[in-house]
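Let us practice reading a record.
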Amino acid sequence: MRLAIRHTTRYRFAGPVAHGLQRLRLTPKTTQGQSIRDWTMAYVGAREELTYDDQNHNHVTLVSVLEGTEEVVVTCRGTVDTEDHAGVLGSHAGHLPLWSFLGHTDLTRPGPRVRQLLSGIERRRDDAVATLHNLSAAIREKVIYATGETRVDTTAEEAITAGLGVCQDHAHIFIAAARSLEIPARYVSGYLMMNDRIEQEATHAWAEAWVDELGWVGFDISNGISPDPRYVRLATGRDYRDAAPVTGISYGAATETLTVDLAVEQQVVEQ
């Protein structure tokens, strides 16, 4: 499947910025089942300083905010070819060893509610994938998808206690639970082509778990499936903070508004 993506992020500040830096994880990477045909990034109110691959093998672009700027606009455009591998990514890449994805972070540290969730799922000793799908289904049942109820710093335990959250929260709960089962797990940010519309409100998030003999396997908890050709991976990490599409700091003015325009659609491939 060939997917065309247009993604614009716009920051409006309360006043002129004296200095600012933004770290962008907005360039997809070639992985099993995903190849990048073309990808461009353009900036208004900012200047590209350097690019590098981080410890998770994410492509990172560092941009500086121009002095006196009151608005920064980052526009990404490109096409990506995807294949269906039933959510299986395979071998590990990056500088972090697998065991680093067993350790809990502030956002994924399990508490009583996560442990209670784990106690109620059916575990298959001979089938880790089935156990993880059972975990995904239990999270989807316990935590209703609802926007505006959580924040980027909401923890897995807080989200499951509230019973409300978005894809980021679902992924954090899954990661917290999987690591409690001694299964390495990581967070994924990316794009998902919706079947009923082209324009979307935000990027998507899901989780991946390490399964012996398969490698990394993806689980989209919010939609109850493993990623298929409609998904494009941007970045991975131990939690949202490692894989956030945009992070940054600024001096001289506080961020007033953030808006995102995103469109993902399938292109016809001529034979």
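A brief commentary: The first helix runs from residue 112 to 119.
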